[in-house]
Design goal:
There is one protein chain. The chain has 209 residues and is an alpha+beta fold. The chain has helices spanning 27-37, 42-47, 53-65, 96-106, 108-124, 147-162, 176-181, and strands spanning 8-13, 17-21, 71-74, 79-84, 130-138, 165-170, 185-191, 198-204. The longest helix is centred in the middle third of the chain and has 17 residues, at 108-124. Helix 6 (147-162) links the parallel strand 5 (130-138) and strand 6 (165-170). Helix 1 packs across helix 3 (53-65).
């Protein structure tokens, strides 16, 4: 298995998928992967149905996660994941310039729904120490090849070693089996609006627990 030398902190995962910790020099790559992976996501299209929205939003979100050193990308550039370590809260606060640009491009409703989404996540977030998976994505056309599993196992192994849990919000019914296979259990289901998409709140206890 070849290793690309310009990636930092290489981690080898079974099934011939190499997962690499991403630095700031890979922010654009991570954002591009997630924009492709989430272009048909039910929550993302609920926030804003404009197909350009994922390409605009992910480059703004990724830099928040990079300083916490838990952003990962596969060597083949097919998958990426944004994690937060224990003790770090999700605090993505758009600047006035970003909000102005969002209003100009996508309208006020997209801004309102974004803040509705973020506030809902905060309201239901668990209080114990855990690794938080905010986003995991695989490029369209490359799913079902073990990329998502490799990205999950990479951090779940640390959860077991450190005896802490892992938490995520799942917006895709088809991903339920994947998460459950890796030990996540459903703790609840919430709807973002009366006729809006659902989120399944999923938690994984460490194997050592």
């Amino acid at each position: 298995m070849a290793v690309i030398n310009d990636f930092k902190d290489v981690v080898f995962i079974p099934d011939n998928v190499c997962v690499n910790k991403a630095g700031t020099d890979r922010a654009g790559l991570v954002a591009d992967i997630l924009a492709d992976a989430f272009k048909e996501d039910l929550v993302m299209t609920w926030i804003c149905p404009d197909p350009e929205y994922p390409k605009w939003a992910w480059p703004l979100a990724v830099p928040f996660f990079l300083p916490h050193n838990e952003v990962y990308v596969t060597q083949d550039r097919l998958g990426a994941a944004l994690w937060l370590p224990p003790g770090i809260e999700l605090r993505i606060s758009p600047s006035l310039a970003v909000l102005w640009d969002a209003w100009r491009r996508f309208g006020f409703r997209s801004i309102f729904r974004y803040f509705k989404f973020i506030s809902t996540l905060a309201k239901h977030h668990p209080k114990d120490r855990h690794y938080y998976l905010f986003a995991i994505g695989v490029r369209s056309g490359s799913r079902g090849c073990g990329v998502g599993s490799a990205l999950l196992r990479n951090v779940l192994q640390k959860c077991d070693e450190e005896n802490v849990g892992a938490y995520l919000e799942n917006s895709s019914p088809r991903n339920m089996t994947l998460y459950q296979r890796h030990g996540f259990e459903i703790r609840g289901e919430i709807a973002l609006a009366r006729n809006g998409p659902s989120l399944w709140l999923m938690y994984r206890r460490p194997l050592s627990a």
